[in-house]
Each structure stands twice: as structure tokens, then as C-alpha cells.
Automatic annotation (TrEMBL):
Annotated Pfam families: FxsA (PF04186)
Species in which this protein is naturally found: Mycobacterium adipatum
Organism taxonomic ancestry: Bacteria, Bacillati, Actinomycetota, Actinomycetes, Mycobacteriales
Keywords: Membrane, Transmembrane, Transmembrane helix
Protein name as annotated: Membrane protein FxsA
Domain of life: Bacteria
NCBIfam families: PRK11463.1-2 (NF008528)
PANTHER family recorded: UPF0716 PROTEIN FXSA (PTHR35335:SF1)
Entry GO CC: membrane
Transmembrane segments: 7-26, 32-52, 73-98
């Protein structure tokens, strides 16, 4: 899966670069890539600092907000996308760093992550010595026995009532 995702990333970035070079030229494309990287880093730095302050305020107030956690995850993803080389990833990362687009992306991210976690998380039950009914691993019981396979030879009541046409 990671190889496919990386392959898609390479194809998208390459297609964007080729289209940009053929449209505006090589020099302007290099300048555009560097500009989006620099602007993305500046926005990422300010948004990360802002979210660290928001997280500290939430911890001091002892309140937890799902919206704050989702926003922080989207800011972190945006910062990573800005740092990854490439024009398309930098633009997508910069969009995730802007509060209006995060407001749009938040429900999509919650739905995607929730669906993925619901399908991937198995029901796990653990027992420890503190719970009632816990039996420490040790010697197991062994029952010596024989299995006999039984086949009924008498027809059931339904088969007796069904007449056969000969």
C-alpha cells in the first residue's frame, strides 16, 4: 500500500511539474516550487505555534475538544505536506494549514478516519490477575476420550409422509 501511495504521489507531482514547465517555462516553475515551499513553511510555523498555544490553553482548562484534536491533526498533516518536496503536495499542505479550508476538511477527515478505524480495530479483551474469574496460565486439563460418528438410518417423520412415485 505504501509503495502504491508513493507511486501515485510521484505521478501527480511529475504531471504537475511537466504541465507547469510546458506552460510557463523551467525557470518560472523552479521559482514557483521554491515560493510555495517558502510560503508553506511560513504558514506552517505560524499555525503550529498557534495550535500549541490552543492545546496548552485546553490542557490548563482541563477541557477536551474533538474539534481541537482534529484541527491539530490537520495542521500536522499540512505541515508534513508542505515539507515534502513537490508543488502539488505543498499546495495541498498550505490549504490544510488555512483555517477556512480546515473547517471544510474536518468532517471529511473525521468520517474517513472513523470508517477506517471501525473496520480495522478488532474487539480485544484482556484479562489480568485483578479480575474475577482469572486463571493464571499453567497446567491445562487433559481429557482422554474417543469420538464416535453416528449416522441415523431411520427416516425422519417428514420423509415418512412424503410418498414416492414409482
Amino acid at each position: 500500500m505504501a509503495k502504491r501511495l508513493f507511486g501515485v504521489y510521484l505521478l501527480v507531482e511529475l504531471a504537475v511539474l511537466v504541465a507547469l514547465v510546458s506552460t510557463i517555462g523551467f525557470g518560472w516553475t523552479v521559482l514557483a516550487v521554491l515560493a510555495t515551499f517558502a510560503v508553506g513553511l511560513a504558514v506552517a510555523g505560524s499555525q503550529i505555534a498557534r495550535h500549541i498555544r490552543r492545546l496548552q490553553a485546553a490542557l490548563n482548562a482541563r477541557s477536551s475538544s474533538g474539534e481541537l484534536a482534529t484541527d491539530s491533526a490537520l495542521v500536522a498533516l499540512g505541515a508534513v505536506l508542505v515539507v515534502i518536496p513537490g508543488l502539488a503536495s505543498s499546495v495541498l499542505g498550505a490549504l490544510l494549514l488555512m483555517p477556512p479550508t480546515r473547517r471544510i476538511a474536518r468532517p471529511v477527515a473525521v468520517a474517513a478516519i472513523g470508517k477506517r478505524l471501525a473496520g480495522a480495530t478488532p474487539l480485544v479483551m484482556t484479562y489480568s490477575a485483578g479480575y474475577a474469574g482469572y486463571r493464571a496460565p499453567g497446567r491445562t486439563d487433559y481429557v482422554d476420550g474417543e469420538v464416535i460418528d453416528v449416522v441415523d438410518t431411520e427416516p425422519t417423520s417428514v420423509e415418512q409422509r412424503t410418498p414416492t412415485a414409482d
